[in-house]
Here is the input.
Amino acid sequence: MLSRRTFLTGLGAGAATYALHACTSDRKPSGGAASSSSAASTTTTTVVRAAGDRPDPSKPEGVDLLPQIDHIVVVMMENHSYDNYLGMLGRADGFTLGTDGKPTNSNPDANGQALKAFHMANTCQLPRQPSQAWSASHKQYADGTNSGFVQSDSGPVAMGYWAGDDIPFYYALANTFPVCDRWFGSCLAQTFPNRRFLIAGTAWGTINNNLDFVTSGPQPPNGTIFHQLNKHTIPWKDYYTSLPTVGLALPFFQANSDKAVKVEQFFADAAAGNLPAFCLVEPDYDHTSEENSEDITLGEKFTSSVVDAVMHGPKWEKTLLIWCYDEHGGYYDHVPPPVAIAPDNIPPMLGASDAPGDYTRYGFRVPAAIVSPYAKRDYVSHVVHDHTSILKLVETKFNLPALTARDANADNLLDSLDFDNSPAFLTPPSLPKSHNVDGVTALCSSAGPVPNPAG
Here is the structure.
C-alpha cells in the first residue's frame, strides 16, 4: 500500500492525478439522540427520505430556495473531538467540572485506574498518538460507554484537552456564533472515509486512508455534490494549500481540475467579492491542519485568516461559513455517537483484524460553529448534525436531489440561522487573534508531559 507521505511527495502542483490527503423547515433527524448527560435535540417525527429526493419536491432542481445566502464556505480541519477543544467552553455540553474547576471525566487506563481529563502542557501533539483508526475508534466507543479511549491505541494522551488560553480565537468564535454540540463525524473511522461523506454522502466502502483505493478504487455510485453543482452550472471551487478533497473522487477531479485552485486565490476572491456559491478552503495537511504532531496554533491561525477574509469581504452579508473537523483524531469525547441512517447498501471493506461494524453509527463529536450575518446570537445547536448536513444545506439552497439516504435525512443547519429578523452580525464582531502570529513558526517543538501532572 502506498504511504501517505510517499504519495504526497510525488504530487506536483500541476499534476493531473491529484488525490487527497488527508436545519430547515423539514429538519428531519438522521439518528436517535445520544445517550449522554444531555440528549440531542431533534424533531419528534423521523421521516425517512431516499437518495434522489429533493428538499422541495414541488419545485424543479436547481431553483434557489435560500436567496439570503449566496456563498457557502466550508473550513474542515483535522482530528479533534469536541471535548478535546471545546470541553471547557462552558456554554454547551462539555466536560463535567469538579469544585476545583477541572474536569471529572475519566477513562480507565491499562491497569483499570481512572485517568481524568487533563490540560495539555503546550499546543504540540504526540507524533503517533492518539489514533482514530476504525478498530481504535470502535474500541473507544465501547458499546456506548465511551470508556475505551486510554486502552485503545490512543493511549493516555486521549484524555488531553486544550482551553481558551491555548486557542483564544476558536473559543471566541464558538462563544460568539452558534456552536453545534451535537455535530458528529460521519463514521467511526479516519480522514478519507469522513471526507468522502462530506462530498458524496457515503464512504463507498472505505474505512481507512488507503491511497491505493483513491487511485484505482470505485467511484461513489451517485457521484458527489460537485457533480450536482456542475449539472446546474452552479459555481464551486476547492481552494487547497497542499491537496484538494475533491481528489478523493479522482476521475471527476481530473476532469474538473480547473476548479481546484491554490488557497491564495481564495483570499483574492474573498477580497474581490468573487467567491463561488460553494467552496472548500483547505489547510496544508502537513503543517496547518491540526493533525498530530502539529502545533495546533498553526491551524488556528489559518482558520482565523479564512474567517477574517470572509467577514471583512464585500459579500459578508450573503455568506455562511462552516467551521468543523473531519473526525475526532482519537481524542476523548463523553457523548456516545448515536445511531445513523445507512447511506447505501455498500458495506465497509473489513479485513480479518478489523473490528466489526458498519455505517449505521456516527463518529464521535467534533467542534463546529456556524458563522454568518444571519447566525443566531447566543445560540447553541443541540440538533444532530454530521458532515452530510453540509450536503443537505447545499441541496436545500438549490433544491438538489440527495446523493444517499444519509444526506437525504440529514439536518440542513438552518436551525442556527434567523432569516426573520435583521441580521445579528451584519457588522462583523471583533474576535481575538490566534496566539500564533505568523502561522508559520510553531510555538513548541514537541508535546509536553502526557499526562500532564500540572493539568
The first strand starts at residue 71 and ends at 77. Residues 1-45 have pLDDT under 50 and may be disordered.
